[in-house]
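In keeping with the milestone schedule agreed at the kick-off meeting, the structural modelling team has produced records for the first pair of proteins. Each record is given below as a sequence line and a structure-token line. The laboratory manager (R.T.) confirmed that both were archived under the project's standard naming scheme.
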Amino acid sequence: MALHPRNITIRRFAKRDLGAFAQWVRPQITGATLNLALITDTHDRTQFSRTFYGPNGFWHVQEQHWLAGELPIDWRVHLGDLVDGSEPSFLTLWRLKNIMNDYKADSLPFVIAKGNHDDNDKYAEKNRRFSGSFHPWVFNENVFLPMKAQVGGPFVSLHGLSVFDQGTLRVITLNTSDIPVRWVGGRKNYDLKKTLGVTAGQLQELADALAGAGSRNVLIMAHAPAMTRSGKVGLRFNARQLHELLRAYNEKLSGRLNCGSDPDFGGQVRFDFAETSGQVIAYLAGHWHTEEDFAVNGIHYSLQNVSALMGRNHALTTRFNRRQNRVIATPSEYAGYVVSIDDQARLLSIFGYGAAAKTRRFRY
């Protein structure tokens, strides 16, 4: 039985704050082509902290759920690091399942990207045999499978890339933790917390999804950005190739993309965008625990702030969040967004609540 968002119990201060935010943003997004309720990096865990990550990551998901019920939201979005991955595997899996139960609780569709913390490798790093790391089936069965099973939900590929269309728009969500996993001598071949990348196989899926967009403009989403502001790569494997594929789509090119000869990430990607007429609107990401917008070769990268609490005095807190002076049980504790695209006006608007900029608008 579906759970109506109005029946969700959320904290009183959050209900007041998000209610005021909804009242303010509603007239600005009504009638848009696509409205997304978006959070990223909840880093949920059982161990409680008043200055850093804790079980409030799950509360932020519930609060996003409540907010989505107050607004004309088309999709709920989580851009990865649902869990912190720093506890024994049974605890992390429990936290992951709690979050997914919230996303599955009503008929509003959702799309979720895989983050580099979601395989519990942060916990496994503490163990000599790297024990406690999830096998790939854990995220696939608990997240990608229910995503794919939604009525009217997204297409989900073999490599964890997802696609859905909304009117004149196509939304493609990438898996920047597309890392081929093997256990060698009882130890995992890659630490996924420290390794970001996309395989040539996923880039071929992306090329096909872009070619199939036709006249639609395309929004790209992922946990991690492919590039940095300075033009350096944001992923360990195939970041430049991913970026160049998006450029090729904008320039309506055809050809082959060389991903090198690495046995896990190498190969050739064929693309043909000659029959398309849309463009890449933006590449939305999280991961860096900051808020930033920049363009590299005409591709707009937009970073969204971490939802999870990052207290000012914690050693790992980023400069952006230190300036926010985030405090538990206040609106600064969380950070989230409503992303609204008016394709007729060619306008991308990002409205933030909590530890986020109130309004960012971009023409495309």
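The second protein of the pair:
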Amino acid sequence: MRTQTIFGILFLLGGIFQAITAYLIYQGHEHYILRLANRKIGMIIYIIFALLLFFLAYVNLFSR
């Protein structure tokens, strides 16, 4: 397995977990980001991280 494929899988898993964290913040679970920002800003931060990780996964998995 190529290193680029492994990085793509890791970025994909990271993006999934970031998206789950954003959803849990939306549902009302407490998180350390809520000490720094309100719920809406915390969700936006985690969604941006998730999208960035999904993009990196796409680049690493589907580039030749």
